[in-house]
Amino acid sequence: MPQSFSSLPIKQEILQAIQQLGFSQMTEVQEKAIPPMLEGRDVIAKAPTGTGKTFAFGIPLIEHCDTEKAAIQSLILAPTRELATQIGDDLSKLTQFLPQLRIVVVYGGQSIERQKQQLKKGVHILVATPGRLLDLLHHRALTLQGVTTAVLDEADRMLDMGFYKDVRKILDSLKVMKQMCMFSATISREVMDIGWLFQRDPEEITVLPVEDSEPKIDQYSVQCIGREKIDIILRLMKQFETSRAIIFCNTKYTTGMVAEQLHARGLNTAALHGDMRQSERNKIMEEYKAGQIDILVATDVAARGIDVSGIEVVFNYDIPQENDAYLHRIGRTGRAKREGISFVLHSKDETSRLQNIIHYTRSHIVPLEMDGWGVFKEVKK
């Protein structure tokens, strides 16, 4: 039986916020991570996305925060600006009855001067991407001398993206750090190395996907050539009666091309990629969340951390270059116990690459082909 949040020894204001958000019982990762974090222990948690990790580390950080001290006490590192923003939003909801507790989110792509102004007003919990944090430290816009707790979220992704040296440099600078916690979908070699260097006897937590919380996603593949892909996407959306979609591409050029072609067909579409200004990306995401955009065409980096409810279908316009990316992509649908659909569009030459993804991710992907009536049916073996 899941435990209630009310059983935790935490401030009434935090419990009030949790209740206001409509939560009463903890998820598995919250049950396992919150008590040792409240005790001040290091934690290394392997848990799938969508299991409530932000509350798992956010609640202890907020509980330990002393608002009488005008200093950054907790630091959360995230691999992308989207995830950093998402964490900041979640923590703001948890502190809605603690107005004196200040949370600031900093990331690249936004005015560094504006971020300096935010930091001058005082910060208790800082959420940051590694690159922008080092920029701000270089500009002497903040000090981490009071940070006692550090959290790495999506640690595997962050370290795989080439931030290993940056993360080490940041953690090395935390002279009074007493607690370091990592939350990760996989425990890679780099994650283990960071744990070995900076953690002391960590509580090791593993959360397996359970049937109830595991996304229910019907996965399909269609073999085709490049110029057929737009028509196939439109046919599949019509046949499967879906309207709200994300289409993943491997390059920013392809996202623009696909978005333009769909727009020319009269569909409400926008492209999202890493080279866009942050203000543009925020605007597109707000419109997508509000339902003003039906189809989002995105690269992996741009879509990282997107948590939008009601996405019915995910298309892999390009086969992902990394096996893990496939799971991150299709995980955008089938959320909150809803069912979802995903499709991989691939050429004949990419069949072995697809088989590699199936083997690595243990996915059940059903091949489809179009019959003479333009209807997609399962390929007969």
Report on this model:
The protein is of the alpha/beta class. It contains 14 helices and 15 strands. The chain has helices at residues 12-20, 28-38, 53-64, 81-94, 112-120, 130-138, 155-172, 189-198, 229-239, 252-264, 278-289, 300-303, 323-330, 351-361, and strands at residues 43-46, 74-77, 103-106, 125-128, 149-153, 179-184, 203-206, 216-223, 245-248, 269-272, 295-298, 313-316, 339-346, 365-370, 376-378. Strands 10-11-9-12-13-8-14-15 form an eight-stranded mixed β-sheet. Helix 11 links the parallel strand 10 and strand 11 (295-298). Helix 6 runs parallel beside helix 7 and helix 7 (155-172) runs parallel beside helix 8 (189-198). The protein is globular and about 70 Å long.
Give a short summary of the structure:
The chain is α/β, with parallel strands linked by helices and 381 residues long.
Oligomeric assembly: single chain
Report strand order across the widest sheet. Answer: 10-11-9-12-13-8-14-15
SSE ordering: HHEHEHEHEHEHEHEEHEHEHEHEHEHEE
Q: Between the first and last Cα atoms, what is the distance in angstroms?
A: 44 Å
In percent terms, what proportion of residues is strand? 15-25%
Radius of gyration: 22 Å
Helical percentage: 25-40%
Class from helix and strand fractions = alpha/beta
What is the global morphology? globular
| Largest pleated sheet | 8 strands, mixed
**Residue-averaged pLDDT:** 90
Contiguous runs where pLDDT drops below 50 for at least 5 residues: none
Got a strand count?
Answer: 15
Number of helical segments? 14
